[in-house]
Amino acid sequence: MSTHSVSVPPITLETIHTIDDDSFTSDRVCIVTGSASGIGRAVALAAAGNGLTVGATDFDAAGLEETVSRAEEIDLPGTITPIVADLTVDEDIERIVEEAATLGDITYLANVAGVQHIDALEDFPMDTYDRIHDIMLRAPIYLSKRCIPHFKDSEDGTGCVGNMASVHGHYVTSDKVAYNVSKFGLRGLTQSIAAEGDGDIRSFSVSTGYVKTPLVTNQLEDTADQRGISVQEVIEEVMLGQSRVKTMMDPIDVANLFIIGFSDLGSHLDGGDLLFDGGMTLTYE
Ligand code: NAD
């Protein structure tokens, strides 16, 4: 029986990178999808840690409450308001933006929610493809479409959309066609927003390898048992086999990249991708 050597570290005030940015104020709203877990929760906490008002959305109401509780426990300067919504439902997407607009000026949108399904292309169920597409690509497009008028209406007419891509938005692994196509598509959305935003409305994507989220850590013991290897070997050989850096990122490390991208430090990051993959995609042995 293998033992768990990876746990998801709790997010603390000290791990949130704070940036002294004129736009990080409580009258500005950051919408974050997937806020009930993993990277989305970390982005919501990091945005509130930087003084922003957060519209935290997910269809997992209990998980969203945990995100709000964590923000209160560590006494973040910004507030997090949960907005329970399903990204496959257009009326829910419209409501996310409407409710967020009541909290202040919508200035930032972080499209983070995502799911996975493993099947060969020839066996891939099309209803599953449609659902993944709706959550991971159509929803980010529709949310962007609904947020851009709010960006334009704000005092300085600016705004920024950060999209959670992946190494799977650069190269692909087999049996993940819907995920791969969604991540490549998100990079297309990022560049399309940049093309139309004239520098006032920016967009960027974030591409990482494996991150310590429940989605990943929950698979470790099973994979180790299936393959008859240790959890550490699963991490180093299976997940990080092609990575030069042999440790997984923490969710907050990814969230801090969103904060940098949203801030003035990112003012020339427009259509670009933050590839933080430990050397996974651009090197080989
Ligand atoms: P996670 O499972 O911890 O979080 C995903 C969240 O999306 C969950 O809270 C879930 O409830 C929400 N969600 C799913 N379907 C939804 C729907 N229909 N409506 C509303 N919310 C919905 O996963 P994570 O690891 O934090 O992944 C977040 C993002 O990061 C995903 O886009 C994923 O592809 C990407 N990513 C993850 C890793 C990794 O190693 N964990 C690496 C690269 C990219």
| General form | globular
Order of helices and strands: EHEHEHEHEHEHHHE
Quaternary structure annotation = single chain
Radius of gyration, in Å, reads 18 Å
CA(first)-CA(last) distance: 32 Å
CATH class equals Alpha Beta
Beta-sheet strand percentage? 5-15%
CATH superfamily name? NAD(P)-binding Rossmann-like Domain
Unreliable segments (pLDDT under 50, ≥5 consecutive)?
none
Across the major sheet, the strand order is 3-2-1-4-5-6-7
Describe the structure in your own words:
Helix 5 (177-197) links the parallel strand 5 and strand 6. This protein has a single domain (21-211, 250-276), classed as Rossmann fold. It has a seven-stranded parallel beta sheet, with helices on both faces. It is globular and about 55 Å long. By secondary structure, the chain is of the alpha/beta class. The protein is 42% helix and 15% strand. The mean pLDDT is 95.
Short description:
With 285 residues, the protein is α/β, with parallel strands linked by helices.
Q: What's the structural blueprint in terms of helices and strands?
A:
Layout: E1 28-33, H1 38-49, E2 53-58, H2 61-73, E3 80-84, H3 90-101, E4 105-111, H4 126-153, E5 159-164, H5 177-197, E6 201-208, H6 214-227, H7 231-239, H8 251-262, E7 273-276
Parallel strand pairs: 1-2, 1-4, 2-3, 4-5, 5-6, 6-7
Helix pairs in contact: 1-2, 1-8, 3-4, 4-5, 6-7
Bound molecules: nicotinamide-adenine-dinucleotide.
